[in-house]
Structures are given as structure tokens and as C-alpha cells.
Design goal:
The chain is of the alpha+beta class. It has a single domain, classed as oxygen-dependent coproporphyrinogen oxidase. The protein is 45% helix and 22% strand. It contains ten helices and eight strands. Strands 1-2-3-4-5-6-8-7 form an eight-stranded antiparallel sheet. Strand 1 and strand 2 form a beta hairpin. InterPro entries: RCC_reductase. This is Red chlorophyll catabolite reductase.
Length: 277
């Protein structure tokens, strides 16, 4: 289905190429962010040709949405993106990502959810509150953010479903970034079971994602924590490395191939400036 033309900023929140249950979930997550954090965020001020972009032949489309936190808030930035790419063999790949980063004035975890839909019957889900401190050296951090919140029960629940299998990123760096309770799963259905993936998103992934975002709001994004100058500097350095490595691994190679060098340079250049501000 081809989406109707819309203003660049509204393109992102339309999520025009994904299935209805995923679209409804992403809209709800964005609405929750607006409700809980809206007064702490600046409006999205990206150039129109960065908020929405496509390749010359129209086979790949993308949207980027960024809102930075006001100086007095704990929020560094909210970053959302989606990519839709038609495949030469037919079908399409859809990647939808929403990340929330905190400032170095707190050491609480960030939030990330990513859907990678490579076919109607194949989905990869990444959902986590990535830690920002070493969990071996700081066992109290593990207890507060992961044990007391019982985050691991969500991973266990999903992996009990027959079509769900663990997913292992090809990047060791990516695997090292996430928490022990991270949800990194692959969902594969039979060719005639497209609705099964949609049902899993609606009945299982959606309630888990909304609960985990709520946990992040309550335990991470709204609680002041004492962070010393040395720790703050280390957090800022660590966050910057992860953000830039994410661009390098996820986007640096794929964007020129999908969108052409000119579009890739424009979008990634703006994104790098924002992440390193």
C-alpha cells in the first residue's frame, strides 16, 4: 500500500508501511512519550528533506524524527526512524526504531525498540533498557533496574511462544551494548501464516513494549540520581561512542546503498551533528 502524501513531520508518526498492530503500537508509544515527556522536549526542527527522504527511483523511503530535551530535563533526546525498501525479488524490508537517551546527569538506562520485518512472515524484535554502567562492578545497578523491575519475565514470556527464537546480531559490539534481560528475538511463521506475526505483535509484543516504556518512565526518566563529575564525563563518553557506533554499524553502510550517496550524506550528516551535540 502506498501512503498518501503528507507533511514531512507527520510522515514519521504515520508509520505508513507497517502492519496495523505495529502501527498502533508505535503510535501509542509516541503518544505516551508526548504525554509523559512533552513539556521536557523541544519540537522536532529537522530540515524537511531529513524528516522524510527517498532514493531517486522511489524504491526506498525513510523518515527521521528527533526531539532533544530542554536543559533542565533528564532527557538527552528522543530518536525515531523508519525505513521501507522494496526488494528486487518482490516484497519489502521495513525497519522501525524508537530510542530514548538520557543525559549524563543521570546514570539510568536508556530505552530502545526496533522492528525488522524482512517479509510478511519474518520479524526480528529488539527491545531493551540498555545499561549505562558495568553490571559486574555495580551489582546494585543490576538490582534496581533489572531485578527489582522483573524485566526478564518479558523475555521469558516471548520465548515460550512456539515461533519465537533467540536472535543474535552479527555484531559483537551490538550484543555487548544490551542488558542481560534484553529481548532479541526472531519470529518466523509459515508462508501462509502472515496473520500469526500480526497477532503476536498485538497480543504479546505490544503489552510488553508499553509496560517496559512505562518502567523506563517511572524508574529511569523521572528519578533524579546523584552523579559525580567523573562519572558524568564517563557516561557522556560512553553514550557518544554507542551513538556513533550505532550509525556506523546500522546506517553507515546501508544508507548509501539504499538511498544513494547524496541522500545518505545529508541525512547521516545531520544525525551525526545531533548525536554529538
Amino acid at each position: 500500500m502506498e501512503p498518501l502524501h503528507a507533511e514531512p513531520q507527520s510522515k514519521f508518526i504515520e508509520f505508513p508501511y507497517v502492519c496495523a498492530p505495529q502501527r498502533e503500537l508505535m503510535v501509542e508509544l509516541m503518544s505516551s512519550i508526548e504525554t509523559r515527556l512533552g513539556s521536557d522536549l523541544h519540537p522536532c526542527t529537522l530540515p524537511p528533506d531529513v524528516q522524510y527522504y527517498e532514493n531517486p527511483n522511489g524504491s526506498a523511503h525513510g523518515s527521521l524524527h528527533v526531539r532533544s530535551g530542554i536543559p533542565s530535563s533528564l532527557i538527552n533526546l528522543i530518536l525515531g526512524s523508519w525505513i521501507h525498501c522494496k526488494l528486487p525479488s518482490g516484497g519489502a524490508v521495513n525497519i522501525t526504531t524508537l530510542s530514548a537517551y538520557l543525559r549524563s546527569s543521570t546514570n539510568a538506562p536508556n530505552f530502545v525498540i526496533e522492528f525488522i520485518r524482512t517479509s510478511p512472515v519474518s520479524l526480528v524484535l529488539i527491545l531493551d533498557l540498555p545499561p549505562r554502567k558495568d553490571l559486574v562492578l555495580h551489582p546494585e545497578y543490576l538490582k534496581v533496574f533489572y531485578e527489582d523491575t522483573q524485566l526478564d519475565r518479558h523475555r521469558k514470556h516471548l520465548q515460550e511462544l512456539p515461533v519465537v527464537r533467540p536472535y543474535f546480531s552479527s555484531s559483537l559490539f551490538v550484543r555487548a551494548v544490551f542488558s542481560p534481560s534484553s529481548i532479541m528475538v526472531s519470529i518466523e511463521a509459515n508462508d501462509d501464516e502472515e496473520e500469526r506475526i500480526d497477532d503476536i505483535i498485538r497480543d504479546h509484543i505490544s503489552p510488553i513494549a508499553k509496560e517496559m516504556l512505562g518502567t523506563w518512565f517511572d524508574v529511569c526518566a523521572s528519578v533524579e540520581r546523584e552523579v559525580g563529575g567523573d562519572e558524568s564525563a564517563e557516561l557522556e563518553r560512553r553514550d557518544r561512542i554507542i551513538k556513533n557506533k550505532t550509525i556506523e554499524i546500522d546506517l553507515g553502510l546501508s544508507y548509501p546503498r539504499l538511498f544513494g550517496q547524496e541522500v545518505a550524506d545529508r541525512v547521516l550528516g545531520v544525525l551525526r551533528d545531533i548525536l554529538n551535540a
